[in-house]
Structure formats: structure tokens, C-alpha cells
TrEMBL record:
SUPFAM superfamilies the UniProt entry points to: Homeodomain-like
Native species: Kaistella flava (ex Peng et al. 2021)
Protein name: Helix-turn-helix transcriptional regulator
SMART domains xref list: HTH_ARAC
Protein origin, superkingdom: Bacteria
Alphabetical list of InterPro entries matching this protein: Homeodomain-like_sf (IPR009057), HTH_AraC (IPR018060), Tscrpt_reg_AraC-type_HTH (IPR020449)
Claim: Magnesium is one of the keywords in the record: no
Keyword Glycoprotein appears in the UniProt entry: no
């Protein structure tokens, strides 16, 4: 097992569960490129699999369990400390959809050999930058390299996202609902909005959600709204009134009540706690 004490970035090979640092899910965002074999796991209580030629991304503090590795499994793993990654996201607007998508679909298929090589190059470059502690502008360079890493991974991820988005138009209605939710939850938090777009009843949409995920459509909407609100409140370039307006709340007080119901604290209290970390 790797000793991860104080390391903000770790780059290593994984073939079994004990190759990960202890409690890595709590402190690190995980990037995994599978080169051989298969890896099965549960993500938010759903069974999933990552196999040769696929890329896997987990956010820190994701709900993970039941790891099972094939005997020939081999992968390259990059762990980035959670605050280092989140605090250096280059573009808040694009990042929200990217992050929401990854919270539903953590496994991504990488097509060409050049894309696979690009992933490993990105892993190595940010690790090398992290180790270059003698650089006069070390912290500034590490932050810039983190931003470059994110943009490079987004570029690869965007192709997968667009393919999935297009296929959903003729794919199953549950995934189409999730796609619509990612695009519209900023301003639309009512089940009826989505059932109208899908041309199905609320009862049938709830049935689809329950059989595919175990939770209702309204719960999915709440989860997406919660994620988006958290991301927006973490962006200090936006004041709380602007966030309320961007999310199409009828009043600031209604937004405050909605946030307190979701997060247990008011928007101002949440931002104060986040900035105090």
C-alpha cells in the first residue's frame, strides 16, 4: 500500500484493492486508466465495470463498495487531493455539466490509441510538476498545471459526453431524462418539465427511475440541484443574489429556504464554512 501522507498528487499502478492508499476515497479525486483485465465495483449502489481501454473518474467522498479485480488486471492511477483539483477548475460554466455527468457515468470509453497515450501523458506531466518543488514559483506552476490537466481531460471527456448525448435521443428514456436533467436543472426543478419533454407521465418516469436507480425522478432532480448549488456557492466570483437569479428562483428568500432544505444551512452559512476551510 502507498503511503499518501501529505502527498497532494499520487501516480502509481493498481492491480488489486490494497494498491490504493488507505482511505483514498475520502481525500482524493481518482483517475484510473485500465490497461488490462476488468474491475467491478458498486457506485452509488449500482453495479459497474471498468475494462481494458476505459477510463474511470471518481470524485472524493463518492459512495463506492464491493471492489472486484480480475487476476490479470492492470491500470494506471492518478490521485489528486480534492481541494487542489476543485480550487483550480478553469471554467465554472462548463465544469458544472462535466461534473454532474461524471457523477452519473464515471466510466468512459477512450477510442484511439493516441487518446489513451494522451491520458498517460497528462498523468505523468502533473506528477512531474508536483515533484518539481525547487521551482521558484512552485505553487503558481502547480496550479496552472492542474488547470491544464483538467482542460486536457475535459477535451477527451467531451467526445464521450457528446456521443452519449446524441445516442440518448434514440436510447432509453431513463438516460434521456438524466441527460435532460444535466442540461436543465439550473432553472427547472419540477418533474412536469421533464415529463413534458419526454412525452411520458410522471408515474412512468418514476417507474423508470426506480427500476434503473432505485430512487424517484424528484430525488434525482434534488440531487442535481444540490450538486449545482454547491458548485456555484464554491465559486466566490458569484454573489448569492446572482446565483439565485441564475437558477431562476422567484425571490432571494425562496432560494435561501430551498438551499437550507437541501443543505441544512443557508447559502451564506455554507459559503462561510467553505471559505473557512
Amino acid at each position: 500500500m502507498i503511503n499518501s501522507a501529505l502527498a497532494r498528487i499520487l501516480f502509481f499502478e493498481v492491480s488489486k484493492e490494497t494498491d490504493f492508499p488507505e482511505n483514498f476515497q475520502q481525500f482524493y479525486h481518482t483517475h484510473l486508466f485500465c490497461q488490462r483485465g476488468t474491475f467491478q465495483f458498486k457506485f452509488n449502489d449500482q453495479k459497474m465495470e471498468c475494462k481494458s481501454g476505459q477510463f474511470l473518474f471518481w470524485f472524493a467522498e463518492s459512495k463506492l463498495s464491493d471492489f472486484k479485480f480480475s487476476k490479470n488486471f492492470k491500470s494506471s492511477a492518478l490521485l489528486i487531493e480534492k481541494d487542489l483539483l476543485i480550487n483550480n477548475i478553469p471554467d465554472q460554466g462548463w465544469s458544472i455539466n462535466a461534473q454532474l455527468h461524471s457523477r452519473i457515468f464515471p466510466v468512459k470509453t477512450i477510442g484511439s490509441a493516441s487518446e489513451k497515450e494522451k491520458i498517460l501523458t497528462n498523468f505523468k506531466q502533473i506528477k512531474e510538476r508536483f515533484l518539481e518543488t525547487s521551482h521558484r514559483f512552485y505553487e503558481e506552476m502547480l496550479k496552472l498545471q492542474t488547470q491544464i490537466f483538467i482542460l486536457e481531460m475535459w477535451n477527451l471527456f467531451a467526445n464521450e459526453y457528446e456521443k452519449r448525448k446524441h445516442s440518448l435521443q434514440t436510447g432509453n428514456q431513463y438516460e434521456h431524462f438524466i441527460s435532460l436533467l444535466q442540461e436543465n436543472c439550473l432553472q427547472h426543478r419540477e418533474v412536469k418539465f421533464y415529463t413534458d419533454l419526454l412525452n411520458i407521465s410522471a408515474k412512468y418516469l418514476n417507474y423508470l427511475c426506480k427500476i434503473h436507480s432505485g430512487i424517484t425522478a424528484s430525488e434525482w432532480i434534488k440531487r442535481h440541484a444540490k450538486e449545482r448549488i454547491i458548485l456555484l456557492l464554491q465559486n466566490n466570483n458569484l454573489n448569492i443574489s446572482e446565483i439565485s437569479e441564475e437558477m431562476n428562483f422567484s425571490s432571494y428568500s425562496y432560494f435561501t429556504r430551498y438551499v437550507k432544505k437541501l443543505l441544512g444551512v443557508t447559502p451564506g452559512e455554507f459559503r462561510g464554512r467553505f471559505n473557512a476551510k
